[in-house]
Amino acid sequence: MSLFDYFSRKKNNTASIAKERLQVIVAHERRQNKQPDYLAALQKDIMEVIKKYVDIDIDNIEVQLDNHGNFSVLELNVTLPDKLPAAKAGNSR
Amino acid sequence: MAKIIVVTSGKGGVGKTTTSSAISTGLALRGHKTAVIDFDIGLRNLDLIMNCERRVVYDFVNVINGDATLKQALIKDKRCENLFILPASQTRDKDALTKEGVEKVLNELKEMDFEYIICDSPAGIEHGAFMALYFADEAVVVANPEVSSVRDSDRILGILQSKSRKAEQGENVVEHLLITRYDPARVARGEMLGVADVEEILATKLLGVIPECQSVLKASNQGVPVIHDNESKAGKAYADAVARLTGEQVEHRFLTPEHKSLFQRLFRRSA
Predict the structure, then answer these.
(1) For B268, which of A2, A15, A30 is closest by C-beta distance?
(2) ipTM for the whole complex
(3) What is the per-residue pLDDT for B269?
């Protein structure tokens, strides 16, 4: 390690950035992979129903299943378009 | 009873074939009758790393299809008494490996009194990689201290836990983490993920750390598994890893940078 490296090393800790990024993405992907297969189909059906009433995009709906010991929470997050002033985001459990 | 060990990683180019050749050779050198199977159908390379590319007559797919017997296809290693290589086929037919066919070959190897069967997985999470890991009792997950490799390793660990035969039977595949191309000096400078970081993210027991070492390329150039180079760091680190795989307690080595003189520190030549 040269003298220059010694003084600049604090600023250049890219390994800790890598670690943080990995922890976030790995946790996210593990959660996704643990979800049952029917979740994608469920998401599609729910979207069809909502689409009957409001014009939404598939990217604006998020379905998530969290396991908390002996019970699971199915979370639906639908972002409605801005055109509707009354409801920006609905969150139903 | 034969133990089936898959060497896998998800990402390509991290050292699966190098590791498969080193581990299988290491086990054979310790007196265990070992077979190593190349599952990379279409892109076989284990034969080249183990210097038997000109002795390949029949391959894995020939045996599955009944065009050759297993005994005809197995290549006896020239350096190691107890080591046999089953090369991959060069066919482009990706579905040449069937679950039934692979199982038949593995069962036949067990009947031939092999103690260890090492399955060298192709990269990716497609059919070939799935076939390599499906029957595994244990898995060596090879990772480089680098973001894409670690992420892919996590995917493979997830697949081992959910899609392998052991998982289907409600059991666990024993997982081992092998970190390769490790550069302790860069870790010390905060430029590379450290062993503890990778271990923590993947939550898998560490089998070994293979330092970045010139001996690995030298070994592959000559077709001599690097574990034979017992002067080199990589060779020593692989030997330690094999010992741990057989249940021995061996201290990890080469985790800290080599000591450099003050002169070297101040006037390091730029690469």
Answers:
(1) A2
(2) 0.84
(3) 54
- The predicted-structure confidence for B66-79, as pLDDT tens digits, reads as follows 999 999 999 999 99
pLDDT digits (tens, 9 = 90+) for B25-62: 999 999 999 999 999 998 999 999 999 999 999 999 99
Among B68, B72, B34, residue whose Cα is nearest residue B50:
B34
- 3 state SS of B37: strand
Name the 3-class secondary structure at B61. helix
**Candidates B191, B193, B260; nearest CB to A12:** B191
Residue type, position B151, single letter: R
Q: How far apart are CA B97 and CA B8, in angstroms?
A: 17
Mark yes or no for CB contact B193/A3 under 8 Å: no
Shortest Cα distance, chain B CAs vs residue A35, angstroms: 12
Nearest alpha-carbon partner for B202 in B171, B241, B161, B165: B161
Asked if B206 contacts B195 with a C-beta cutoff of 8 angstroms, the reply is yes
Q: Which long-range contacts (CB under 8 A, 24 or more apart) does B71-79 make?
A: B74/B35, B75/B47, B77/B25, B77/B28, B77/B50, B77/B52, B78/B51, B78/B52, B79/B25, B79/B224, B79/B228
Cβ–Cβ under 8 Å, residues B190 and B257:
no
